[in-house]
Amino acid sequence: MSTFWKGLLIAVTFIFVVTGGSLIWLQWRLDQETVTPLAIANPNGTSGKALIVYQPGLSSFPKKVIAAFAEGLVASGWQVWTTTASSQAPAAVASYDLIVLGSPVYADAPGKALARYIERVADFGRRPVVILLMAARGAEHAIKLTEQMVAKASGRRVLSLGLTTMKPNDEANKYTGSNTHRAIQIARDTGRALQPAIH
Ligand SMILES: Cc1cc2nc3c(=O)[nH]c(=O)nc-3n(C[C@H](O)[C@H](O)[C@H](O)COP(=O)(O)O)c2cc1C
Question: Looking at the structure, do residues 53 and 75 belong to the same domain, yes or no?
Answer without folding.
Answer: yes
